[in-house]
Amino acid sequence: MTKLTTLFIIFLFSSILLFIKSSNASTTYNVLTFGAKPNGQIDATQPFLNAWGAACTSAEPTMIYVPKGRYLIKEATFRGPCKNKIIVKIDGTLVAPLDYWDIGNSGYWILFIKVNGISVIGGNIDAKGDGFWACRKSGNNNCPVGARSITFNWANDVVISGLLSINSQVTHLVINSCNNVMVKNVKIIAPDQSPNTDGIHVQSSTNVTIIGCRIKTGDDCISIGPGTRNLWMEKILCGPGHGISIGSLGREYEEDGVQNVTLSYSIFTGSDNGLRIKSWARPSTSFVKNINYRNIVMKYVDNPIIIDQNYCPNSQDCPQQTSGVKISEVIYKNIEGTSTTEVAMNFDCSPSNPCQGIQIQDIKLTYMNKKAKSFCNNIQGTKKGVILPDTCI
């Protein structure tokens, strides 16, 4: 057992203990007693905020309880710091307004900010994003920017368990500048053509665990941004979607990197990518280091394994440049299944910063039940065990 694995097991165990301890809330605030109506038609935003205010100022651990029913919620910010731990137990469904403009220019629908010891348990959130997507697809330049469904900013010791997020305008769940986060048994659903509906986005955060999640969406199942450290993902079901992506990195010159990321025991089904690392083709101080992919199944997946360091959409802002993002110490182990692209392993690394320390072991990928191919450009690495397709490393 590696030191990194041991550390993650300790963190996982401590997160479960945190959840158990936080479950012993001394006081419960029912949103109905604050005037919330469970009919999905009367605005319940202020009753929810009032319940939060009572819980946040309590000197003892508290629970905010949302009974069964549908609750109309507009843009809502649940702000800390609070005096004690808070559990938000949701048995009902939070629904966004039908008019996507009501939350569309806020950037956020439900936002938790500067809160420590917060647990969100159960419940459904429905952002009703189809109207917003239609605006985006129409080419209308007057569409709002779109709202992320649920966001945690500058929060520590967070548990998100059993949540179902449906039809977010853009990203479903955002973890930004947080420490010690457990995301468990979360389901995310949006149509495969819905634009920019990433499932879970993590950036500038440390010690995040994502386990047992089912993600069907129109963009990355999980996207990993700059400043991510110690991210553990396990038992993820991804697809449709754009796979699990590190990046895009290197959009800015001075940008933090990504390191210590593990994905294991996961299945990709019909996704547009599998294991993807992507960077802009432009100078940058960013990096990707110590990444471990193991025990992965691909079921009819485009680009099961891909590193793309020549990302330059529409040839704008980066023509004829090379990526400064340094990619090293990436392990691919025990990955099998079917590719829907002939090139099942595509390593297109930067000519100015070649990928280094890439390890592949026991890979069995076929192309529609035929022999697949691999592509290598500016890469240094090693291989071990049975490798199909034949590797160019």
UniProtKB/TrEMBL annotation:
SMART domains: PbH1. Residues 1-25 form the signal peptide. Its main location: secreted. One of its GO terms (molecular function) is polygalacturonase activity. SUPFAM superfamilies: Pectin lyase-like (SSF51126). Belongs to the glycosyl hydrolase 28 family. This is Polygalacturonase.
